[in-house]
Amino acid sequence: MFERSDETLVKQALKGKKSAWVTLVKRYEKNLYNYTLRMVSNPDDALDLMQDVFMAVFRNLASFRGDSPFKGWMFKIAHYRCIEFYRRKKPTQSLDDTPEQEEQSSDACPEAHLFSGQQASLLQKAMQTLPINQKLVVELKFFQHCTFDDIAKQLGISVNTVKSRLYSALDKLKDHLELDHVK
User: Fold this and answer.
1) Which residues form the RNA polymerase sigma-70 region domain (predicted)?
2) Residue 91 lies in a domain
3) CB within 10 Å: which end of the chain, N or C, has fewer?
């Protein structure tokens, strides 16, 4: 059996074919959930954000021009929703005060099998220390496997800015993880 392209599914969904939309949602729900979970570190908030993103994608499906891949377009919407999430937070609550992410099953986060439970936990904790603009670049590069050009397009910044944010984030993660390792 062959897999229909995202563009074909979008066209069918726009024509009212419910199964095409369901296929798109099923295709990307794990990736989108894992993305939002890494961004907000709270499973309930991540589920809410994921649902919000899918609703926004559905409402704006007609505006998808196909200039870039559907996945990139959808994650750009997810990026903006995550930014909105942080803006709605109480001004007195810093990102460091966000609750730590609960232990996940390997089903919820496929990347988690790459690390031991303790290493994954340390990495997730370290990711939460990054500013949102650096966290997004790390997420897109290493977890969504985007190229520097794709990240620049999604975030509306230059490739050099993407690289600068990534290398700065990696330095911070390295420092944070080394501190945890010494303790």
Assistant:
1) 24-90
2) yes
3) N
In whole angstroms, give the CA distance from residue 135 to residue 139: 6
- Ramachandran region, residue 118 (left: φ > 0; alpha: ψ -120 to 50; beta: rest): alpha
Predicted confidence (pLDDT) per residue in 99-128, tens digit: 444 444 444 444 444 445 566 667 777 888
**What pLDDT, on a 0 to 100 scale, did the predictor assign at position 101?**
43
Are 84 and 132 within one domain?
no
H, E, C per residue of 10-62: HHHHHCCCHHHHHHHHHHHHHHHHHHHHHHHCCHHHHHHHHHHHHHHHHHCHH
**What CATH number should be reported for the domain holding residue 68?**
1.10.1740.10
Contact 136, 127 (CB under 8 A): no
Number of domains within the chain: 2
CA distance 123 to 100: 12
Cα separations (Å) of 19 from 4, 12, 14, 71, 80? 12, 9, 11, 18, 27
pLDDT at 117: 57
Listed as ranges, residues in the chain with pLDDT below 50 are 92-115
Length of the chain: 183
